Amino acid sequence: MCGRYHLNSTPAEVSKHFDVDVRDNFPPRYNVSPTQPIATIRMSETRTREYALMRWGFIPSWAKGDHLKRLSAKPLINARSETVAEKPTFRLAYKRRRCLIPADGFYEWKGKAGAKQPYTIARGGLFGFAGVWETATDPDGGEIDTCAILTIAAGADVKTLHSREPIVISPEHYELWLTADERDIDYLEDLLRPAVKGTWRHYPVSKAVGSPRNDGPDLLKEIAI
Predict the structure, then answer these.
(1) Cα(97)–Cα(51) distance, rounded to whole angstroms?
(2) Catalytic site residues?
């Protein structure tokens, strides 16, 4: 599961890391939440990498009527990697429209309902979540690019906090992830793995991160519990 994350690297750092032209001067974001516009990297129509803003919350292109309204109200922010190649909602996007979602870390909650403690989880630098995207029709009839983050059963570092973790694509595999076509889709299976033990570091942070209205570097400060 990945329902909140942070991207505090600068546009210049994102541009250099992903080898892409980033023209937006976006500010640091310490509490990125579902339905918000987020930074992504995808392949353009000319088969070059491009930076694009997308809505975090996947809507398949065929969604109409009440189905579209439900997905707009309760977005599909994650896609299970175990079924993404077969599930009708995601399978075409997985075959043809994959993306990278820049991040510096993400959040998970641990504990009983009503008393859950948030933790930030990071690896000490900028990275790219594995994502899928689709151009959908919004409830007002316009077109909107939407995306979801792929997840998998949590590895050793995360499973004490949550049963699932987001998939991260290593820089040496960015090109494969972005460009593989339907003939090469089997090669992507080796990329759908949890992080190896020792990759992630986590610590408790303020419960203020629970509200998407809150943002700022104080959300990343370690607290005592």
Answers:
(1) 14
(2) 2, 108
